[in-house]
Amino acid sequence: MSSRARYSTAGPSTARTPAPPSSSVNPAYQPLAHPLNETGLRDLRNLRNQNHLRKLQEHVRQAVDSLTDAAALMNERSSTANDNYQKRKKKLERDGKEPTEDDEKSGEHVKKLKQDVETMTGGIEAAVRQTIDAEQTVKFMEDSLETANSRVSVNAAAAQSQTQRSQRRQRGMDDGEDMPDFDPTLPGTAPATQVVVPSNLFRQRIESDRNRYQALSHYTRYGQNNHYIGFKKAVHESSHPTDSIAPPLPNAKTWFSEAGPPPPGVTNDDSDDDIAIASEKISTKCPLTLQELKEPVKSRLCPHSYEKKAMIDLIRQGGVHTVQCPVTGCAKMLTEHDLVHDASLTRKIKRIQQARNDVMSDDEEDSRMPESVDSGDDIDDVDDATDVQRPRKKSVAPKMEQTLRPRRNAGGGGSIPIYEYDETYA
């Protein structure tokens, strides 16, 4: 059986050189020669009505919240480490003992940690300001789109009206009627409509708004911004994590100077007249469930906190999706969008709850101790007491109550209502 050899008729293979990448260059922009037609106007309206800018606005707000939480957590840990070191140092002094080498290293570590945290907090504060500027830019973009839509619509309507007049004039000429010569001074006559370019309007409006915004003082740009106030407040409170009531937050006008903002917790003037935001009074119970807060959320519109699930269930029921703040005396109407998670608030509530549990535990421990007549001696440690024991001290768990009172900025200017609410122990 013969076999046939199959020969390839293809020529020798040659390596193909790849074609050079084509460089795509956008053509030069050509301005509008005529006003936008109905299709162009509809596209411009759709651009304004899209949610891209709203989503960007929400991302900016989330960025501010994340920066605030990071700064608060850093300062809280630094302050807690310093408080623990100071307690250890005082105990050694009270016991008449010299600090060990480890104690000295701990002191150096705490000092360096504080310096690093202050430096990083300054960087985060600068980022918060930039984010607030970005938020304003988004608002300028929204306003510019609105201006462009309005002006272009008016321009298109004027052009259409002029076109209709020209068409009527042309039909009259075709019918043999004698049409008067065009006179721009006569009522009802006008020159050709000038074309309004939307992109030019957009850029001009944004540039104007930016220049006006950048000319404002730092106090006006940031000191009256709720996000920036929240940042300063969170850093201030986290600098006093073990205090039952943090010192008042200095007036916003003391936050800024020609040399830059003062360090966290430092004020240019400690007079009482500069105090605008008093120390807070926080309730650890939800106004709806009357139970201890486990997953608290705060309102953007008022200084109140709620249990997340209970408040969301209240908002969603009935299909209204808007409810009045459940705290007595507060008339703010809230939606689910107005509820935000506050990590700093959550940590502070947990500290208050832990402190209360510690007091209750100490009270139970003291109740098991035998009572005896006090000898009048100071005994710092129960374990050191041999023949004489201290009388049992009755401890009462602090009861947290909440009151709210609006307060005006004492420094004048802006007159932003600032709500103050303090921790009160009964």
Automatic annotation (TrEMBL):
Compartment(s) of residence: Nucleus
Record has Metal-binding as a keyword: yes
SP-RING-type domain ranges (all copies): 271-354
GO BP terms, alphabetized: double-strand break repair via homologous recombination; protein sumoylation
Entry keyword set: Metal-binding, Nucleus, Transferase, Ubl conjugation pathway, Zinc, Zinc-finger
GO molecular function list: SUMO ligase activity; zinc ion binding
Residue spans of biased composition, Acidic residues class: 374-386
Recorded metabolic or biological pathway in which this protein acts: Protein modification; protein sumoylation
Chief localization: nucleus
One Pfam family here: zf-Nse
Listed GO CC annotations: nucleus; Smc5-Smc6 complex
Spans annotated as Disordered: 1-39, 74-110, 152-193, 355-426
InterPro entries recorded: Nse2(Mms21), Znf_MIZ, Znf_RING/FYVE/PHD
PROSITE patterns in the record: ZF_SP_RING
Matches recorded under SUPFAM superfamilies: RING/U-box
Low complexity bias (residue ranges): 8-17, 152-165
Protein family per UniProt: Belongs to the NSE2 family.
Name of the protein described by the UniProt record: SP-RING-type domain-containing protein
Species for this entry: Saccharata proteae CBS 121410
